[in-house]
Structures are given as structure tokens and as C-alpha cells.
């Protein structure tokens, strides 16, 4: 490691990963010189349009940015969660609210033991999703944006907002393509650009996407495959202009013959993408299946190839990989922007608490935390595949038989023995987990994975539960559609705060 404190940072890559990391570092450590080097020739992948609730927490709470410019420039649509066309039920919902890890004193058991085939909602968030609403109405008659939510954002608009934010904070953005990197062992000394400029820094952030120019190509860091749990390796992506369709305040994940298909709603565009395994279906067959389900697709769908996994270390020498340069998994839970925010925050916190004086033990701790975060994402996605019984195609037979659950196996075993209770939270899920026991229970209950604690509520408890569901439904029906909520927050009288 460098013996002197970090004073200069160069970020290689000007997509969402590079800009988010640069913004985070400059905002939290304004004394540092932060420079982004990006190549317009390489461009951006432009797939990650969905976020988790952590996105807003990162920018508007941790970084303290005003949401107003984000809403004005990025033009996001709210996302309450995911509607899954998955498993034996018609559908189920995974929201960012607490629907299973919640206490109802009047009921003897945890919420997961109570269900009704006619009601697929468990909180105001999922009730709003069912009723075509995005937010309930506050006593003051305005949308309750304090409800947990993420966003759908068109990538080009997101990057433009990030560029403007970075420039405002004092991040220098340089257009240039890296030709080579000068290294000494595990240290990068400088980057040589095609223009001939030599760029030096104390610390380099590799946000060059799948190319992983510094971490993988230059430093030759090995790749750890997630192929034992995640079998998809391609996506074909298309969409069409919105006409009369209502804007959905959630992502849809639909089971397909050899994978799954997302639908993400933007204000003027509907985005559809089929994630699949090339071992079970060809690109042409995948495109045909996508078109058959979505005849409105207006553009020429493109195929993106990927591999699921991570680099063995995300921090090597004086290079930190953030985003796709350090790892990637398919967007089944929209974790791409989430992991970028987590990695960026972890790096900023490391630099702040150490005074910029970095040690090998700090680097090792950073790598351990990132490895754990990637492992949890892999294991959570594995639960989606292991227990989806909706189709009996060759691909899904393979998933049910061969998917390794990794660390999620303990959670599944606990659930199968004890039913949908959240008592093992913090034991089987890491501190700071983005899913927690809540997320795993949503998937296990939603896919109707059997357990050995079946419970039939007595009449008085069933009545209380049904009354609770009816009240949620009534409140949701009084709520705002996406279109109505957009009109309110775009009015001149609307006041933004970080909680929104």
C-alpha cells in the first residue's frame, strides 16, 4: 500500500458506476482531488434501470443531496417492489416494506402464517401494487412518499443527472481512452491515454464495466464464477413507446421457458428484457419468445452477453473495482446500482475513518465485506431458481435439481422446520443485508415452499386478519396512481425533503 495518505483519486469509466463512486468520494471527502476519465467510444451498457430502496437512502440521506434535481433531470418513476409471475400462484409481491417481519399483538403467529388465496397483498405497499396505485394518501391529501420505494430510471437520463451532480461538486471529467497502464507489482503508477497524456493518482477506481481494464486486464485478478447457482448468461432487450397503458409503480418479473423477463415502466417507454441461458435456448429462439409475448416491441432488440460472478478481490494494491468491473449478476433483484452505492460508501467510509492512510488490513476488511455482499446476492437469487415450479421446461427442471443455495441453505432449512418466522434475522443474514430475513420469507412464502408448521387460524384470528387486509385495500384505493403523484410533485407548491 502507499505510505502517504490518499490525496488524488482517478476513476476510470464514466457510466453510472464511475460517476456514483466519484460523487460519493467527493461529497464525503471534498478535500480530495477526484477525476473521472471516460471514453465516449466505449459508451454505457444501459440496462440497469431499476433500483432498490437503498438508492434514495444513499443519495438523499447518506450524501445529503436535494432530491429536486434528481426528479427534474432523471425523471424517475417510483418502484414499490417486484410483482413475480413465478411459482404456483398467479402472482406474488416482494416489496421494500416489512410484510413478514412485523408484529401483530392480536395474532398468535407471525404474519407469514396468515394468507388468503384471494388476497395477494400484505402491506399498504403491495395493496397499492394490486390496486394500480403507487402511494397512499396522507391526512393532508398528498402522496405519502415516505413509503419505502426505489426507482425506475432511464439510463441516459440517470447518467446525465450524475454528470451534472459530479461537476457541481468539483469532480473533473476528462474525455479520453486508456491506452495502457503503468504498474509496479500490484500498484498502478499511471494511466497512459490515447492522447498521450499520463494520468497519475494515489488511488484508482476501476469502473470500466465488463472490460475491467485495471482490475482484471492489467492486474490479472482471477474471476470467481457463480455458475453453480446462476445459469443465465444472456439478455435480449427491447421495448415500445407508451400509449394508453397505465404506468406501473413496480417491476414485473415473468417466468419464461429458459429464464425470465422483466418489465420496467418509464413515463414514455416500456422496457422489456428476457434473461436466459444460452445452454437451453438460442438467441434467435429467445428473441422469438420475447416477441410472441410482446408483439408491441418497436425497436430492434439487442443481445447482451454476461457472466455471473466477481473478481477474487475487489481491492488490489491501489485499485478498487466498483460496479461491473468487480462483479455482476443478472438484474432479477435490480442489485446493480445497489452494489455500486454500497461499494462507493464502503470506500468513502474507509478513507474517512483512516484519514486516507491505507493499510493491508483495511483493504482485507473491505474485500471481505464485498465478498459477503456478493455472496448474499448470489444466494438470494438462487432461491428464486431453486423453488420456481411455474414451468416444467428443461431449463427449470435443471434449476430445481442443480441450483446451489450456498449460504441460503441454512435459511431455507430454518424456514422448512419453523415456518415463516423472522427470528433468525441477524444470524443467517449479514448485518446491513439488503434483503434480510424479510426478503427470503417473501420469496419462500410467495413460491409456496412447504414447511412443517402449517397453521389454520381460528375464526377470530382469521376475522382480524381479513379486516386488516380490507383496511389496506381501502386505503390503497384512495391512493395516487403514478400519473397523479407525478402531477403533484411537479407542481410549484411541492416541497422536497430527504425522506421522500
Structure characterization notes:
The protein is α+β, with helices and mostly antiparallel strands. The chain has four domains: 8-67 and 153-228 and 312-376, FAD/NAD(P)-binding domain, CATH 3.50.50; 97-145 and 457-493, no CATH class; 234-305, no CATH class; 407-455, no CATH class. Helices cover 35% and strands 19% of the residues. The protein is built from 14 helices and 21 strands. The protein has helices spanning 16-28, 54-62, 67-74, 124-130, 155-169, 213-218, 283-293, 336-354, 360-386, 394-402, 408-418, 436-446, 459-477, 482-489; strands at 8-12, 33-38, 77-79, 81-85, 92-95, 150-152, 172-175, 178-184, 187-193, 198-200, 203-206, 223-225, 234-241, 251-256, 259-265, 269-276, 302-305, 309-311, 315-316, 319-321, 327-328. The strands form five sheets. It has a seven-stranded mixed β-sheet. The chain has a six-stranded mixed β-sheet with strand order 7-2-1-11-20-19. Strands 8-9-10 form a three-stranded antiparallel β-sheet, with no helix packed on it. Strand 19 and strand 20 (319-321) form a beta hairpin. It is globular. The protein starts with 7 loop residues before the first strand and ends in an 11-residue tail after the last helix. 48% of the residues are buried. The model has no long low-confidence stretch (mean pLDDT 93).
Amino acid at each position: 500500500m502507499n505510505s502517504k495518505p490518499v490525496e488524488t483519486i482517478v476513476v476510470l469509466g464514466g457510466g453510472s458506476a464511475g460517476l456514483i463512486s466519484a460523487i460519493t468520494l467527493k461529497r464525503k471527502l471534498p478535500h480530495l482531488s477526484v477525476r473521472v476519465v471516460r471514453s465516449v467510444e466505449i459508451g454505457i451498457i444501459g440496462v440497469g434501470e431499476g433500483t432498490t430502496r437503498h438508492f434514495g437512502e444513499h443519495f438523499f440521506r447518506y450524501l445529503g443531496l436535494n432530491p429536486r434535481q434528481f426528479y427534474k433531470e432523471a425523471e424517475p418513476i417510483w418502484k414499490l417492489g417486484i410483482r413475480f409471475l413465478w411459482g404456483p400462484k398467479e402472482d406474488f409481491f416482494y416489496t421494500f416494506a416489512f410484510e413478514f417481519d412485523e408484529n401483530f399483538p392480536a395474532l398468535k403467529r407471525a404474519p407469514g402464517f396468515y394468507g388468503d388465496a384471494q388476497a395477494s397483498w400484505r402491506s399498504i405497499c403491495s395493496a397499492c401494487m394490486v390496486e394500480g396505485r403507487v402511494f397512499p394518501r396522507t391526512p393532508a391529501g398528498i402522496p405519502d412518499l415516505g413509503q419505502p420505494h426505489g426507482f425506475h430510471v432511464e439510463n441516459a437520463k440517470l447518467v446525465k443527472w450524475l454528470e451534472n451532480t459530479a461537476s457541481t461538486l468539483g469532480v473533473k471529467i476528462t474525455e479520453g481512452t486508456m491506452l495502457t497502464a503503468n504498474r509496479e507489482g500490484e500498484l498502478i503508477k499511471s494511466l497512459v491515454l490515447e492522447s498521450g497524456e499520463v494520468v497519475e493518482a494515489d488511488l484508482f477506481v476501476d469502473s470500466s464495466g465488463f472490460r475491467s481494464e485495471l482490475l482484471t486486464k492489467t492486474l490479472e485478478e482471477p474471476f470467481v464464477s457463480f455458475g453453480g447457482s446462476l445459469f443465465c448468461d444472456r439478455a435480449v432487450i427491447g421495448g415500445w413507446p407508451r400509449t394508453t397503458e397505465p404506468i406501473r409503480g413496480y417491476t414485473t418479473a415473468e417466468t419464461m421457458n429458459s429464464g425470465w423477463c422483466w418489465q420496467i415502466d418509464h413515463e414514455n417507454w416500456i422496457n422489456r428484457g428476457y434473461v436466459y441461458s444460452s445452454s437451453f435456448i438460442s438467441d434467435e429462439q429467445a428473441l422469438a419468445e420475447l416477441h410472441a409475448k410482446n408483439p408491441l416491441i418497436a425497436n430492434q432488440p439487442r443481445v447482451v452477453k454476461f457472466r455471473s460472478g466477481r473478481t477474487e478481490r475487489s481491492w488490489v494494491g491501489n485499485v478498487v473495482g466498483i460496479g461491473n468491473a468487480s462483479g455482476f449478476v443478472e438484474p432479477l433483484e435490480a442489485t446493480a446500482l445497489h452494489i455500486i452505492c454500497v461499494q462507493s460508501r464502503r470506500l468513502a467510509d474507509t478513507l474517512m475513518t483512516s484519514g486516507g492512510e491505507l493499510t493491508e488490513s483495511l483493504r482485507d476488511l473491505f474485500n471481505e465485506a464485498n465478498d459477503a455482499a456478493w455472496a448474499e446476492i448470489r444466494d438470494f437469487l438462487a432461491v428464486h431458481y431453486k423453488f420456481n415450479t411455474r414451468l416444467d421446461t428443461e431449463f427449470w427442471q435443471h434449476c430445481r435439481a442443480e441450483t446451489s443455495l450456498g449460504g441460503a441453505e441454512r435459511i431455507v432449512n430454518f424456514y422448512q422446520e419453523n415456518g415463516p418466522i423472522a427470528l433468525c434475522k441477524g444470524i443467517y443474514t449479514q448485518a446491513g443485508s439488503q434483503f434480510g430475513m424479510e426478503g427470503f420469507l417473501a420469496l419462500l412464502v410467495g413460491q409456496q415452499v412447504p414447511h412443517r408448521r402449517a397453521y389454520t387460524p381460528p375464526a377470530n384470528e382469521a376475522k382480524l386478519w381479513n379486516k386488516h387486509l380490507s383496511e389496506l385495500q381501502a386505503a390503497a384505493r384512495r391512493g395516487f396512481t403514478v400519473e397523479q403523484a407525478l402531477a403533484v410533485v411537479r407542481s410549484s407548491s411541492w416541497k422536497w425533503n430527504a425522506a421522500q
